[in-house]
Amino acid sequence: MTLLARHHLPPKEGDYNLRNYLEACETFSWAEAEKAFSWKKTGRINMAHECVDKHVEEGYGSKTAIHYINGEDEYKLTFKEVKEKSDHLASVLRAHGVKKGDIVFIFLPKHPDCYIAMMAVIKLGAIAGPLFEAFMEEAIRDRVADCDGKFMITDHVLGKRIPKNDLPSLEKIFITSSPEHCEAGEISLPAELAAIERESDITEWLDMESGLNIHYTSGSTGKPKGVVHAHRAMVQQYLTGKWVLDLKNDDVYWCTAHPGWVTGTVYGIFAPWLNRATLVVNGGRFDARSWYRTLEKTEVTVWYSAPTAFRMLMAEGNDLQKEYDLSLLRHVLSVGEPLNPEVIYWGEETLGKRIHDTWWMTETGAQLIVNLPSEVIKPGSMGRPFPGIQVAILDDDGNILPHGEVGHLAIKASWPAIMREIWKNEEKYHSYFPFPGWYLSGDLAILDEDGYVFFQGRSDDMINSSGERIGPFEVESKLIEHPAVAEAGVIGKPDALRGEIVKAFIVLRKGYKPSDELLEDIRQFVKKKLAAHAAPREAEFIDQLPKTKISGKILRRELKARELEKINKR
Ligand code: WTA
């Protein structure tokens, strides 16, 4: 990869919340950022209060908090309505025993109910565990069992995927549908809301270290790990919302991620609501026309999405967007996977906008490397460290490498949004800090002389498909549960549209013959049991997997090297 981007894109004219990056870096302090919060005066801390209730108290109750759109279904909720609905739901949950520190899983589609549930859980001081709507039985079991989850909020459709009999810890399942849709033992929320009065003074006051949300995330080894964040994260989430998303009072903001992914929670709920922006919630799946229609119809001004989505729009050609009035759109951002320079040039040409790449991770809790609207973009770079954040590229021994050399992307610890813990896994938590004072991301990168960071890949086997983190071990474990599969090795294969796709190498058990039907059956097995996005898009039968001599571990690197060689030969 070359460091010299074809050409740099200068900032466009605009009245940005942060006008000068270098100046901000010099004078920066997190303490200054804290002044925006009501707890500076009252001492009463709770994320849900800062996101919703505070705005109502300050006279913005009639402002639109959520603009929901899903095909023909469309409506708005004000901050006052979100406050009252989340107060009411919190009252019901409390009556059912939910209290501070409990984990409450939220397994709902991209729908206002999901956002209200997040606020209700957080109001009680409980830890919100949003689950991606495509998760199937196994993905749910892994997560709920890992933290002995007691509570789950879901609907009668997704709820069918919960393997209740395998989850003895799960005491109560709340269903957002009426009683006739509930199975025995499930609790109908509409019925409970009718029976239990709304308490308006329900918010639990917390301290900065109290648990806020838990997101399970994949790595190259083992099952997904529970990354827990604390309420202190709000300081950085607010300030990145203000400076990077550039949110102002009149903004209508659309983050396309589901809250089950960290982006959908932190930048789909917290950061925009801390900045009092209106959220657009689009319930539908990706479809180029309906996405452009959403931008037009809900009058989106600030838009945060992912490279795969931009590439899919790009694949539609340069004319489709002309059918829509996108004149209100003023700021576009991207996250989750490498943003190709070509996509940035496409954005310039077709939308007339620069696409601002940002880098962060579930574990970091907020953006750390960013392209600010007031600064030059070097296409191919993820941007520069947010003020107050120090980045370095380290060699394998923890020494700082000079500009231009590839090494481990590391961040000087600590910062307000960094994870509080990995649930019940101290060893894993410490593994992020192999060298004193540095958080190691697992990404490989280059830093140039201006401080711009260029992503180069991962140092481990983690797969990133369409911006979604997929652990090869999780997929391999599921594959070998299929009766025909003896062994499986899973890698990320480079893909022009999705960044990477999941590719599986499968050794069959004796008595099974390779066939296309069998491959499809195995693929469907993973899709139905684990999650659609984790199912191998490509699979290949192989006689034997390459393994390490001593421990007999699958050499995914070798599989990947062979695959890359095949691609290069073509
Ligand atoms: C990758 C998502 C290239 C990276 C917020 C990181 C990126 C992982 C970028 C975290 C980017 C994220 N360019 N790669 N701008 N942003 N990544 O936890 O490998 O789902 O370590 O958090 O995504 O994924 P996660």
Question: Could you characterize what this model shows?
Answer:
The protein is 30% helix and 23% strand. It contains 17 helices and 26 strands. The strands form six sheets. A nine-stranded mixed sheet has the order 2-1-11-10-12-13-14-15-16. Helix 4 crosses helix 6 and helix 5 packs across helix 6. The mean pLDDT is 96. With 570 residues, it is α/β, with parallel strands linked by helices. The protein has two domains: 410 residues, ANL, N-terminal domain (Rossmann fold); 107 residues, 2-Layer Sandwich (GMP Synthetase, Chain A, domain 3). 50% of the residues are buried. Bound molecules: 5'-O-[(S)-ethoxy(hydroxy)phosphoryl]adenosine. 5'-O-[(S)-ethoxy(hydroxy)phosphoryl]adenosine binds next to helix 10, strand 14, strand 20 and strand 21. The site of 5'-O-[(S)-ethoxy(hydroxy)phosphoryl]adenosine has 22 residues, from helix 10, strand 14, strand 20 and strand 21.
Concise summary:
This protein is α/β, with parallel strands linked by helices and 570 residues long. Helix content is 30%, strand content 23%. The strands form 6 sheets. The protein has a 9-stranded mixed β-sheet with strand order 2-1-11-10-12-13-14-15-16.
Number of strands: 26
Q: CATH first level of the largest domain: which class?
A: Alpha Beta
Residue share in helix: 25-40%
Number of structural units classed as domains: 2
Average pLDDT over all residues? 96
- What CATH architecture of the largest domain do you see? 3-Layer(aba) Sandwich
Domain AMP-binding enzyme C-terminal: 474-549
GO cellular component, one term: cytosol
EC number: 6.2.1.1
Protein name: acetate--CoA ligase
